[in-house]
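[Q] Does anyone have a clean structure-token version of this?
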Amino acid sequence: MMETNKQEQDTYNLLVVDDEDVIRKGMRRILEAESYQVTTSAGGRTAIEKIQEQDFDVVITDLKMPGMDGIEVLKTIKILQPEVPVIIITGYSTVDTAVDAMKNGAFDYIAKPFTSSLIIDKVQKAIAHKTLVTENLSVSKEFGAGHGFDDFIGESAEMRKVFRRIMQVAPTDSTVLITGESGTGKEMVARAIHKNSTRHEHPFVAVDCTSLPETLLESELFGHVKGSFTGAIHSKMGLFKVADGGTLFLDEISNISLATQAKLLRVLQERVLTPIGDTRPVPIDIRLVVATNNNLRAMVDKGSFREDLFFRINVIPVNLPPLRERKGDLPLLIRHFLRKFSEEIGKEVKGLAHDAMEVLEEYPFPGNVRELENIIERAVVLCEGDVIQKANLELRSAEEERVLDQHIVPLNLEELKETKKHVRERAVEPIEKAFVINALKRNNWNVSKAAEDTGMLRPNFHALLKKLGISVRDEQNNQ
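[A] Here you go.
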């Protein structure tokens, strides 16, 4: 049995970092006697160079060293090889030292003076941990290869729950409600569900319910027939029908009006829809996935979201954790974005300076993973060497954010909606006026012919003239 263990241990590569020659030699003797392959380094900076050149299974580093200390080595390893367990050696065996090291991602710590049996025990536990992490990574890679998980970065327990839930619900036709803050990756989850479903060969159609005004949203979803309302020049197939056989993803569903909610509920219940202006019901076959960053239960209590629709869409909930609750994934995400933007921008950026990493570890990331991606892209662009400095991040401290917040006057949500509506109407109105007047000119100021020319019903065309304050006689006299 012992012989088998030794054969297994032949492939384990360990790095020992300590500025004291006697410690390095002692560690090498102890570990090589257990058939580990041992590399040593007399300082933090040379250790990082070795880590950039080859992979290690465990790193053992002294805490107090000149130049780059053990905590800096630890933080850099967590970016370059985040799955590698790091054991800290300290001669200052205080609780604070141990807690600080563990808080920064150390697997364990050893206090001087230590025994050979203690070293061996700690290393064996670290290797067992590394093996488990590697197994989890292989599962993630298996998901990533052709299963729609390619863009997911995460090994934390929170993200593993999300992966498992996706694989559980994907083969079914059940409606899924994805919740989570902006920037957490809700559309990526929806796409992964579709890709792993029986509908994956059919369309995946995504609709952002905040990007369309309420007057157009219903038409986009359900379709309309020519002349059914102002501007309906041609008949249009709704996105429910476009997604037929596949998956329809409604992002930010909390933003649709109560009237549209009622129509959506009826479509989901009856599995048929009637385009605007039509009387013939059209059957649909879709799998619905919806998402929101709002609390729908609270909206139901306030009366701004229909309770029956809430129960209809909340069949299988999938909650995405914010980045601040999965900080263990931060080094992985940083390394991923560093590689991505280094290649895209054409720079060889190897990592982050110690103080830059500290800023990111303390930052709350209100914009979540999307914000982190933007921060790293900006930092790679601004970086003048091969290491990102704190200044390249261009992030405000918590104190600066607090001072700025005190000078911001909050805007009422209803006021914001009215402002956006007003701006949108003012932007559209000149276009509508030009459209109407040009149609009248082409048809010698004959309202009936202009309406027919634009594909509109005469009453609808008249309504548009009234809305825009256009007098045919005045416009004709001004020409």
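[Q] Thanks! Anything notable?
[A] Confidence is low (pLDDT under 50) at residues 1-9, 142-146.
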